[in-house]
Every structure is written in structure tokens, then in C-alpha cells.
Design goal:
Order of helices and strands: HHHHHHHHHHHHHHHHEEHHHHHHHHHH
Distance between the termini: 62 Å
Helix content: 55-70%
CATH class of the largest domain: Mainly Alpha
CATH topology of the largest domain: MetI-like fold
Oligomer: single chain
Number of helices: 26
CATH superfamily of the largest domain: MetI-like
Shape: elongated
């Protein structure tokens, strides 16, 4: 039986090959390949998700925190805007508008309990900012009190929440919907609408209270006074919204009010508000993203005048980075010198004896890291076991006991002991794959034991050395428990400072910047190692 022709056969084109289900073979193969890829992806998806959540996401968060600085602009939005045109190089303070903006922002921040976090953040840059914001937060509510009293004397309704809400709120607003000011009132009295909106939204967000039942902040009356002093009387006469008569009566009276500049009110709270450096710090760290953390991590600082070096007493991070790299390399070298003979011995012994010794190598893994480090504190101290043995043997005098704790020596000794198994295991696994016949052949051809080892055996063990060095170095550069316990002031690593900022000073931005730099240093060293040695030469056996 002849196979029926496809429609295009009559035009001289070959018929496409078909699968068993009648589908063109090419399309069927593509569909099968897509299914295989989807199946493979679904198999690795849990692992991929685990890596994203536990590795990629923390690194991304660390990178973000190292430059994130939104707390200033979010807590002091009006002040940030008012300082945009202020010249920090001038010795004068910013104008009255900046002090007024700070008053509005600080009153709202104090109600939301955000001013203390802002003060702590700025205190990292300028000492004393934390106490300044705490003190100002306690007293800023009194700014505008003088206007509140005079408005109440003029008309008690100026202290009634219901009258304020009826005047300022949009016609369709009702509690508990998010507060919105009436557009026509906001156009006529912008500062008052803005200040009252902050008051109403803070009440709603913090306590869920109805603004119509609460007396407005005194800062709202400050805004009312400022608006009435500059609003066009004709525009106010033409306005017929709620409270129009009271507004017109108030405008006629405010010219005779006793006024106190907001700048003077802040200086009465604390004279530090008269220091241009304080305002310069606010402007320098107003952007949402800042290089300040990275500058601090390399002993520089961001000031209103630009980038400057830290004070000499605060230049510690470059020293810590240098110390961390140096001591990590020393520990890595010590592990190579101690671990290579042990791994060679393990690879050369019969299996029964090698397994027994391997248990001794793995034994430290069965003991808590804290216990091992504490044991070294006992061994290394001046009245410890090692010094006692040296004095008993006559190698040193009792008056000249060695200082091996709370310094770099103690850190190197303790960390070499802790990380030594990470060098032995890769070396051993690679050495077990080296056939002993190679060395025997070299000896049979006249090579000495040293020549056979150095020319035949050692080159084949280099991949194990590379793997062990990478493991030990990366582990050492990020260690912080052992240096913290036995390092003292001269044997701590940069990781100890990172841990301090995370758990004690709570300067997470600086900790993230230090961690990012440390990660970059490791990646650069990894790239250099790959260029010189070649990562392909690293093997775990």
C-alpha cells in the first residue's frame, strides 16, 4: 500500500516526518524537550528557592542597607525640601522657613516615636545628635503654644476639634477613612492644611482616633498664624467655606498677636540648633541613598563640605581589614604546614590505621567551638598549662612567662587548631587518588626519595592544597567567635566589628558596608587566585 501524499507533495516538497500521534516529528521533539526541561526545573526548584531565600536575598539586603538612607527624608520631609537651596559653605544658619519646617516635622515625628531613631542614625555621623533630637522631641510641642493661647482668647472655637475638622476636611471625608483636606481650603491656607493633615493622619494611624474629637497640635496654630499673615484679604473675603467668618475675624486680629520666631524657640530648646554643623549634617544625609557608610568603612566621612578623613582616634577599619587579611593568610599557611604531613601520613598508612587516625582528625568536629576556644584560653594564659610546662622544663623563667592570650598569637594558635581539619580532609582525599606506583617508578629510575616526592608526588597533590587553602582562608576571614574570645584588642578581625555593629551599636548600615567590602575583597582574591593558579586545578579528590 502506498502512503498517501501530503498536500504539498504535488508541488515537489517532501512530506514532513510524522510521530506516532500524527504530529510533525520536529514539533513533537521540541515539545518533549520542553517537558524534560520543565521537569528538571521542578526538581531543582526547591533547592533554588532555598538558595534564593538563605543566600541571595540576605546578600541583596546587605547591599541595599549599605547605601539606604531613607529615614532622614521620610522623617523630616519638609525640612529636607527647605534645605535644598541652603548653602552649607556659608557660616549662617538656614532661614526661618527651615526652622518652621523642622517644627512641623519634629512634632509629627515625636507623635510617631520616630525622632529617636532618626537621632540615633545621625549620631553615627555627628556626635550629640541623638540627645539633641530626644530633648527637642520632648519640648517641640510647646512651639506654637503662644499662638494657640491667643487664638483661644480670640475665639474658643479655635481649640475645638469638631470645628477644625469641619473647616479643613474634604466634604466627603468621614472617620475612619484616611484624612484628606478640602482642595479649596488647601489652596487658600496651604501650611494650615498641611499641618492639620499631619495631625489628623497621625491620630488615625497611631490610635485610630477621630480628629474631630481631639484638640489640634499647637503647631497647627503656628501654621494658621503664618497663613493668615500672608493670605490675600480679598481672597479670604471671597472664600465662603466652613469657618470663613472665624478666619476673617482672625486675620483682622493676627497683626496684633505677640510673635516669637521659630528659630528663637529652637535655640531656647537647645543652643546646638544654632550650630551650622547640625544643619549641614541634616542636609548631607537627606538623600535617600548615601555613600556615607562605605566612606566610614574606609576611615573617611561625609561632611557638609565633602569627603574628609576620620579623626585619627577613629581610623580603625583599614587597620582591621589589613589585620584580617594578614592573619587569615598566616593561619592558612600554618594549616598547610601542619596539615600536609598529617594528610600524607593518612594516605600512606593501611586503611585500618588510617581510619583510626582520621577519627582523631574529625574529633574536634564533635566538640563545641565555644568549648575548644575556652580550652585554649586555659592553655595559653600566663598562668596556664603551656606556660607552666615551659617554666617547669626550665625553658623560660617564671618572671618572663609568655603572653599568648588576648593578642594575635592566641588568635592564630586557636584558629589554626580549629581550621586544621578543613585543610587535612581535602589534602587526604586528593592524596588517596595518587597511585603509589608513580613514586616507586621514579625511585626505580634513580630518583632519590626527595626528588621522587617533589617532582612526582607533590605536583599531583597541589589541587588538594588549593582546595584546602580556599576553604581555610574563606572560613578564617569571616571568623569572629574565636578572635572575640582570645584575640583581645590586637587579635580581633573585621568580622568582630561587624558583629558589634549588628548586635550592640545597631549601626546596620555600617555593618552592611563592612560586610560588602569584605565580600568584594574575597571575590577579588578569588579572581587573583584563579588567574595565578587556576581554579580548575582545585580538586577535592
Amino acid at each position: 500500500m502506498t502512503q498517501p501524499k501530503a498536500p504539498d507533495q504535488g508541488r515537489g516538497r517532501p512530506a514532513p516526518l510524522l510521530a506516532a500521534d500524527g504530529m510533525p516529528l520536529k514539533r513533537s521533539l521540541q515539545r518533549s524537550l520542553r517537558r524534560q526541561k520543565l521537569r528538571a526545573f521542578l526538581l531543582v526548584a526547591p533547592l533554588l528557592l532555598f538558595v534564593l531565600v538563605t543566600f541571595i536575598a540576605p546578600i541583596a539586603d546587605m547591599l541595599f542597607r549599605s547605601v539606604e538612607n531613607q529615614i532622614v527624608s521620610e522623617t523630616l520631609p519638609r525640612t529636607t525640601e527647605a534645605l535644598e537651596d541652603w548653602d552649607t559653605s556659608a557660616s549662617d544658619l538656614p532661614g526661618e522657613a527651615a526652622f518652621v519646617a523642622l517644627a512641623y516635622d519634629l512634632v509629627e515625628a515625636e507623635e510617631r516615636k520616630a525622632h529617636t531613631r532618626l537621632g540615633s542614625r545621625l549620631n553615627y555621623e555627628t556626635s550629640g545628635m541623638s540627645s539633641l533630637f530626644r530633648k527637642s522631641g520632648r519640648e517641640v510641642g510647646d512651639i506654637g503654644e503662644i499662638y494657640l493661647d491667643q487664638f483661644k482668647d480670640l475665639d474658643p472655637a479655635w481649640d475645638e476639634g469638631a470645628d477644625w475638622a469641619a473647616m479643613v476636611a474634604a466634604p466627603d471625608w468621614s472617620h475612619p477613612a484616611p484624612f484628606e483636606a478640602a482642595p479649596d481650603f488647601a489652596a487658600l491656607m496651604p501650611e494650615t492644611a498641611d499641618a492639620y493633615t499631619s495631625f489628623a493622619r497621625t491620630l488615625l494611624d497611631e490610635d485610630g482616633d477621630d480628629p474631630a474629637t481631639e484638640e489640634p497640635w499647637s503647631a497647627v496654630h503656628l501654621a494658621l498664624y503664618r497663613d493668615l499673615m500672608r493670605v490675600d484679604p480679598a481672597a479670604l473675603q471671597a472664600w465662603d467655606g466652613p469657618g470663613a467668618d472665624r478666619l476673617r475675624a482672625a486675620q483682622a486680629a493676627v497683626a496684633g498677636f505677640e510673635a516669637v520666631p521659630v528659630r528663637d524657640a529652637f535655640l531656647d530648646i537647645d543652643e546646638e540648633w544654632g550650630d551650622p554643623k547640625v544643619w549641614g549634617t541634616l542636609k548631607a544625609f537627606a538623600p535617600e541613598y548615601t555613600p556615607g557608610y562605605f566612606l566610614s568603612a574606609v576611615d573617611l566621612k561625609l561632611t557638609p563640605d565633602g569627603v574628609e578623613r576620620q579623626d585619627e582616634t577613629q581610623r580603625i577599619y583599614l587597620l582591621l581589614f589589613q589585620r584580617t587579611l594578614f592573619m587569615s593568610l598566616v593561619i592558612m599557611g600554618a594549616c598547610v604546614l601542619l596539615g600536609y604531613p598529617i594528610a600524607y601520613l593518612l594516605a600512606s598508612l593501611p586503611m585500618r590505621q588510617a581510619n583510626l587516625l582520621m577519627i582523631l582528625v574529625l574529633l574536634p568536629f564533635w566538640t563545641s567551638l565555644l568549648v575548644r576556644t575556652s580550652a585554649w584560653k586555659v592553655l595559653l594564659q600566663q598562668q596556664g598549662v603551656i606556660n607552666d610546662i615551659l617554666v617547669w622544663s626550665g625553658l623560660i623563667d617564671n618572671a618572663n612567662r609568655l603572653v599568648m592570650i588576648n593578642n594575635q598569637t592566641g588568635t592564630i594558635i586557636a584558629m589554626t587548631h580549629i581550621l586544621l581539619p578543613f585543610m587535612i580532609l581535602p589534602l587526604y582525599s586528593v592524596m588517596k587518588t595518587i597511585p603509589p606506583s608513580y613514586v616507586r617508578a621514579a625511585r626505580s629510575l634513580g630518583a632519590t626519595n626527595w626528588t621522587a616526592f617533589w617532582r612526582v608526588y607533590f605536583p599531583q597533590s597541589v589541587p588538594g592544597i588549593g582546595a584546602g587553602c580556599i576553604l581555610v582562608f574563606i572560613l578564617a576571614i569571616g571568623y569572629y567567635i574565636t578572635p572575640e574570645l582570645v584575640g583581645g584588642t590586637s587579635g580581633t578581625f573585621i568580622s568582630n566589628r561587624i558583629a558589634f555593629h549588628i548586635s550592640s551599636s545597631l549601626n546596620w548600615g555600617l555593618a552592611a558596608a563592612l560586610g560588602t567590602i569584605l565580600l568584594a575583597v574575597v571575590l577579588i582574591l578569588y579572581w587573583v587566585y584563579d588567574r595565578i593558579v587556576g581554579i580548575d586545578n582545585v580538586s577535592l579528590g
